[in-house]
Specification:
With about 50 residues, the chain is α+β, with helices and mostly antiparallel strands. It contains 2 helices and 2 strands; from the N terminus they run ααββ.
């Protein structure tokens, strides 16, 4: 569990400091690591995640 929190914290910091192109790459890396799937959800909130 502590490893998952460390990955989430590191990813969140990288994401917050990144531009739009880098954010897509970060989300792709996170999905590959966690086996989640992300899709743009529209103009309101950005992205949503669901299990693959």
């Amino acid at each position: 569990m502590s490893e998952r929190k460390a990955v989430t914290k590191t990813t969140a910091l990288r994401y917050a400091r990144s531009d739009l192109a880098a954010k897509k790459t970060i989300l792709d890396e996170l999905c590959a690591l966690t086996l989640w799937h992300w899709e743009p959800s529209g103009a309101d909130s950005g992205y949503f995640f669901r299990p693959s």
